[in-house]
Amino acid sequence: MEAKEYQNIFKKHAKEKIGLLKKVFSDLKKNKSKSLIRKLREEIHSFKGTASVVDYFEVSDLCRKIEKEIQDFEDKNKNIEEEVLINNLGNNLDKLYQLIEK
């Protein structure tokens, strides 16, 4: 398979993945549980790896940034308030969608 074919498959998969991420994010806004934050981080981690494999480096880099911010929140390494994290997640999920639609 050519690289473009893999990228087309990725784009289809990415739209589904972003739908799942937005669903988890929506659930997280209603119920700010640690398990939903962890699920979101795990899904972002998976998405990051897939994007990297098919050379969608902008997507991979943004996923890395999101994953790091969630990890910092979970580890309390940085003083990130929950509402700031939620706001940043929403903005970054929108950015991910825009990158896929390019």
Summarize this entry quickly:
This protein is mainly alpha-helical and 102 residues long. It is built from four helices and no strands. The model has no long low-confidence stretch (mean pLDDT 90).
Walk me through the structure.
It contains four helices and no strands. It has 102 residues and is mainly α. It has a single domain, classed as Four Helix Bundle (Hemerythrin (Met), subunit A) (Up-down Bundle), CATH 1.20.120.
Global shape:
elongated
**CATH level 3 topology:** Four Helix Bundle (Hemerythrin (Met), subunit A)
Helices and strands, in order, run as: HHHH
What is the overall number of helices? 4
Which key phrases capture this entry?
102 residues, Four Helix Bundle (Hemerythrin (Met), subunit A), mainly alpha
Task: Please give the structural blueprint.
Elements: H1 3-30, H2 34-53, H3 57-75, H4 82-101
Helix pairs in contact: 1-2, 1-4, 2-3, 3-4
